[in-house]
Amino acid sequence: MADARKVVWSVTDAPMLESPDGGMRDTVLVTDDTCGARDVSAGQVWVKPGFEIHEDTHSFDEVYYVVSGRAQLILAGEPHEMKAGDIVYIPNGIRHKILNPHEETFHIAWIISTIWSSMPDVKAELGKWPTVDATTGWHKS
Length: 141
Fold this sequence. Notes:
CATH class: Mainly Beta
Shape: globular
Mean pLDDT: 93
Order of helices and strands: EEHEEEEEEEEHE
Oligomer: single chain
Largest sheet: 7 strands, antiparallel
Number of strands: 11
Strand content: 35-45%
CATH architecture: Sandwich
Helix content: under 10%
CATH superfamily: Jelly Rolls
């Protein structure tokens, strides 16, 4: 019998979280809890015009697919322009952040090469963010 776990995800299938400063929205869709993913986790992020995502470093590789908008990736201090349709690779151990100086919302799908449950600090931080309506709001612009 086929596994009945979910394999296709919509943005409304998981809570949409908004950062305390109101400049970023995140939804975590593919995890070990949601579908049994053992080696990857995935979701989507939106960055409001004029905002940035804090600098981060991970012990795993990360890939973005730019769904819409434009932004700047600062990778190990070097700026890289990103635009809709681009695929972005961030190697493990490299400092990175996203700046959105543009007038449109920046939207990415992200995939990380680790199991979601192995990141209790990230889960705890996101657990502090308020849940917002995924069907309305600035991320839809």
